[in-house]
């Protein structure tokens, strides 16, 4: 019996890492298949790829054409404060493919899972709950970030790491220089990921005040009402108050000083103009309500056991709900939950920690119930499954992705091998491409997207327009823009290419109807056809006219 128990404990003690590896691999596979199926876009994988490429090749400081068309800016720093991108420039210089950026997402989430396990082991004082902890992490719908690449995803493991070191300092009483240095350096790194990342520090500060204070919230607030009480409170919670003040200050400075300082308009673009109206609109109540229901359904069981721990994650949740009129913000499976996810998880662990007593039955019972609810919500709305087919889930299920790949993999391989020939074109021949084609041709400072997410468009003389009618809605919106511009402007050198039609002419098969084998003769024919369009553009080069 003893050996059997020891064997069981040994297995469960190591099962957490296996579960994390499986999760990270599935997340990577989803991201890769979406990219191979041309389901990634100019916003945002394409613009980040181009920003890193132009910086690495001294052709602009994080310059990208999608934001240039959309907002008239010449650097991504004029839109978002994300200096962490400069750390990625050497990597992208060595391997200039968008797959590199997509691979960083599962790596970051895997590291986040490891740090979350280490934190939970300390907070719950043991490894016997390791499987529950990791399952609670990987089953969370907000952990399946599959909306391309965004630097803010890199903040997820950083937030967990800050909480881990802060726990060792404030709860375990280990104020060693390494722990203090870890908090300082990680906080600086966090604030470089996005201008709103300071909200995470505010949430962390509030969390540890609640962890360390045994008094009720009313008692804490009443005591702080006097100057003496406030001073005593600040002295007793120096690190927590520092977190809060640094977080608030960083959000204000980065949003209202640094980004406007770079931006030629002198404003933060997402709180002004037409874009600001979209983000601050009060519509889409339905999507916001469902988002709250999913979040509360997943984390409600542990958090409601100790409602004070609802407060820290409510801070990033409030930001998401306020900005939620732009539907991707409140979509499940997007990067916008990069603060909400770690803060909800660590708050849940502290709520469970409060249940620990001489008898573990309340803790284990709560874990079982919360895991059952987690499994149900995962099946209903998590991006890999989405049995409910809820429209607010980002992307399609893993089964659908694999089914589509089985049909279209030959067509995608043909395009993957032939599209790079456009890099050989004269830079004066602009590549004006459909949004989902942009990431494949982003390593060029004269590649433009036909139509941006907010409706702006681009076309110049001396353009090679690349679209694909296999993607009906994107194709129709792109061609509507192109045809409108051609009718209303004087363009003498615009070549329009429909990838589907080119492959059809070379293979004799319509890729929308029949799986196509990527034979060498077909790839060669498609490549030669592209070269023909390039030659036509180069032979008719004129003075550039027409623009976004």
Automatic annotation (TrEMBL):
It comes from the Archaea. InterPro entries: STSV1_Orf64 (IPR018650). It holds the Pfam family DUF2079. Keywords: Membrane, Transmembrane, Transmembrane helix. The keyword Membrane applies. The chain crosses the membrane at residues 6-29, 100-120, 126-145, 152-171, 241-262, 285-304, 309-329, 367-385. This is DUF2079 domain-containing protein. It comes from Thermococcus camini.
């Amino acid at each position: 019996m003893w050996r059997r128990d020891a064997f069981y404990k040994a297995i469960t003690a190591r099962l957490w890492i296996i579960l994390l590896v499986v999760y990270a691999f599935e997340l990577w596979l989803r991201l890769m298949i979406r990219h191979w199926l041309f389901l990634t876009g100019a916003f945002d994988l394409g613009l980040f790829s181009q920003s890193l490429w132009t910086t690495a090749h001294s052709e602009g400081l994080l310059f990208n054409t999608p934001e240039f068309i959309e907002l008239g800016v010449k650097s991504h720093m004029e839109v978002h404060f994300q200096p962490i991108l400069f750390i990625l420039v050497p990597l992208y210089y060595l391997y200039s493919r968008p797959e590199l950026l997509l691979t960083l997402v599962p790596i970051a989430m895997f590291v986040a899972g490891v740090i979350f396990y280490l934190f939970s082991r300390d907070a719950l004082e043991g490894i016997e709950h390791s499987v529950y902890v990791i399952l609670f992490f990987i089953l969370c719908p907000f952990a399946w970030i599959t909306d391309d690449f965004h630097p803010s995803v890199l903040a997820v493991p950083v937030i967990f790491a800050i909480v881990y070191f802060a726990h060792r300092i404030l709860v375990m009483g280990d104020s060693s220089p390494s722990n203090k240095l870890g908090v300082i350096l990680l906080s600086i790194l966090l604030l470089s990921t996005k201008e709103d990342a300071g909200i995470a520090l505010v949430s962390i500060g509030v969390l540890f005040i609640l962890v360390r204070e045994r008094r009720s919230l009313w008692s804490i607030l009443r005591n702080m009402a006097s100057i003496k009480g406030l001073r005593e409170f600040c002295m007793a919670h120096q690190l927590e108050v520092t977190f809060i003040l640094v977080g608030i200050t960083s959000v204000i400075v980065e949003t209202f000083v640094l980004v406007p300082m770079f931006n030629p308009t002198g404003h933060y673009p997402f709180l002004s103009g037409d874009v600001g109206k979209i983000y601050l609109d009060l519509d889409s109540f339905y999507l916001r309500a469902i988002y709250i229901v999913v979040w509360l359904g997943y984390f409600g069981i542990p958090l409601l056991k100790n409602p004070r721990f609802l407060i820290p994650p409510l801070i990033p949740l409030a930001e998401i709900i306020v900005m939620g009129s732009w539907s991707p913000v409140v979509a499940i499976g997007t990067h916008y939950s990069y603060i909400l996810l770690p803060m909800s998880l660590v708050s849940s662990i502290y709520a469970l920690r409060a249940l620990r007593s001489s008898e573990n039955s309340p803790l284990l019972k709560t874990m079982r119930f919360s895991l059952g609810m987690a499994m149900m919500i995962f099946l209903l709305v998590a991006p890999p499954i989405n049995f409910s087919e809820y429209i607010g889930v980002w992307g399609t299920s893993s089964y659908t992705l694999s089914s589509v790949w089985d049909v279209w993999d030959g067509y995608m391989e043909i395009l993957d091998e032939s599209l790079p020939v456009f890099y050989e074109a004269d830079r004066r021949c602009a590549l004006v491409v459909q949004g989902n084609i942009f990431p494949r041709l982003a390593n060029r400072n004269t590649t433009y997207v036909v139509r941006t997410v907010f409706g702006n468009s681009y076309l110049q003389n001396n353009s090679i327009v690349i679209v694909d009618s296999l993607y009906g809605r994107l194709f129709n919106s792109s061609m509507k823009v192109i045809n409108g511009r051609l009718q209303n402007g004087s363009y003498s050198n615009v070549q329009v290419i429909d990838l589907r039609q080119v492959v059809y002419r070379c293979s004799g098969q319509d890729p929308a109807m029949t799986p196509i084998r990527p034979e060498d003769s077909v790839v060669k024919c498609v490549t030669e056809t592209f070269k023909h369009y390039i030659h036509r553009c180069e032979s008719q080069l004129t003075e550039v006219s027409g623009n976004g």
